[in-house]
Design brief:
It contains twelve helices and 16 strands. By secondary structure, it is an alpha+beta fold. The radius of gyration is 26 Å and the shape is globular.
Length: about 400
């Protein structure tokens, strides 16, 4: 199996400048390749340029500009061109499926934050000084950079990436390793119901509170964004010191909330995987749940629109995104695979309206957000617990059907 590791790097001032130049030059290569594809399609009878053609031009590009393009790893530049090729492949795939296409866009210097090295030892070397007590990673054109390795890397390193987050630099590794030993069986199965009032409710009656990290940081973030918006256009164009510090302040607050959200997701998923052999959850379409309502034109007044609940929906969308359900489910599946546990997604339809005692399904069974009261048999319980029970039953039925 493939496992990823992410470590904080401690570059010197000169190395940080070189890393920034590496991102800038790879960004320039990405934008130049995108422009070439656009020009070829518009002016050369709709000719499509593929990755192979652009990769063959790298040798001439490096010879023409040795100070900027020639100093970096050839394989990392090929990986940047592959990234552009994947963006176009995704664009055409969305067109065929009828989704919103999203044509690949040019990247600003601050938007391009990752450089990939497809093979350890080709333009990069993880743990380049094994006899040194300090772990270092070597990059072509940068040198040996100190790494804060907080846990050992198990297996053979396959790929290496450099990532910038605000003013911090990280190295991301992927290592191939044997499948770990599964955790001892517990004989327990659980269904979970994801929500906003509570992050999740279990079929066993347990609740995990929603930390709402984004809402906690909202006041500070609003102040920081207002301070950033006060800078005139001339300061933004010249990238003055005050403007740069204001940008870093906003990025730091976003980064803190994101790391808190990830930490909560990791701990919650680990607790579930350690305690249960089988976990069922709702197959939520999160992107559809957080869509913006369509505008409602006023037929009597051309150019005006009727209220469509966009303000209330915006608050709900913020809460959904702040909960981070998608990130949590991704982490849950990864940890379950490593631990030998089984996770199954079920259809969420009517899971919170169906009575677990008699099976009666009606909208009136859930009079409030938290209360469930069956109109047929009188069964009462917390609505999220009822939803988790129904999710567990549906998951067990689906597992038995798959095994049959």
């Amino acid at each position: 199996m493939i496992r990823a590791y992410k470590f904080l790097m401690r570059p010197t001032v000169g190395q940080a400048i070189a890393l920034g130049e590496m991102l800038r030059d790879h960004c320039s290569l990405y934008n130049g390749a995108l422009q070439e594809r656009r020009d070829a399609y518009r002016h050369a009878s709709k000719t499509s340029i593929k990755y192979g053609t652009q990769s063959a031009q790298l040798k001439d590009i490096r010879a023409f500009d040795p100070e900027r393009q020639g100093r970096w790893s050839f394989s990392s530049q090929q990986a940047t061109l592959r990234r552009l090729d994947k963006a176009f492949a995704a664009f055409f795939r969305r067109i065929k499926s009828g989704d919103t296409p999203g044509y690949p866009r040019f990247r600003g210097v601050n938007w391009f934050d990752t450089v990939d090295f497809p093979k350890d030892g080709d333009g990069c070397r993880w743990d380049a000084t094994p006899h040194d007590p300090v772990t270092r990673v070597r990059f072509q054109g940068v040198g040996h950079v100190k790494v804060n390795q907080h846990r050992p890397v198990i297996g053979k390193v396959k790929t290496v990436s450099v990532k910038r987050e605000g003013k911090h630099w990280y190295v991301v590794l992927t290592a191939e390793q044997a499948a770990p030993e599964p955790l001892p069986a517990t004989g327990s199965a659980v269904g979970i119901d994801l929500g906003i009032a509570n992050f999740l409710a279990g079929s066993n009656g347990e609740f995990v509170p929603n930390p709402r990290h984004g809402r906690t940081a909202a006041a500070k973030l609003e102040t920081a964004q207002q301070a950033l918006s006060r800078f005139p256009r001339v300061c933004r164009d010249k990238r003055t010191g005050n403007h740069r510090r204001a940008v870093e302040r906003v990025a730091t607050l976003h980064r803190k909330a994101r790391r808190q959200r990830l930490d909560h997701a990791h701990k919650t998923a680990l607790d579930l995987v350690r305690a249960h052999d089988f976990i069922a959850h709702e197959d939520l379409k999160i992107s559809n749940m957080s869509m913006v309502p369509k505008p409602k034109p006023d037929p009597e007044t051309p150019g005006s629109f009727l209220p469509n609940g966009a303000a209330a929906k915006a608050g709900l969308n913020r809460s959904i995104n702040d909960a981070g359900w998608g990130v949590f489910l991704t982490i849950l599946y990864a940890k379950a695979e490593s631990a030998g546990r089984e996770v199954i997604a079920v259809n969420p339809r009517n899971t919170s309206r169906q009575c677990p005692a008699c099976g009666h399904t009606a909208k009136e069974n859930r009079p409030t957000q938290e209360k469930f009261h069956c109109q047929s048999c009188g069964h009462t319980a917390h609505a999220d617990t009822v939803g988790a029970l129904n999710v567990l039953r549906a998951g067990l039925v689906r597992r038995n059907a798959n095994q049959a």
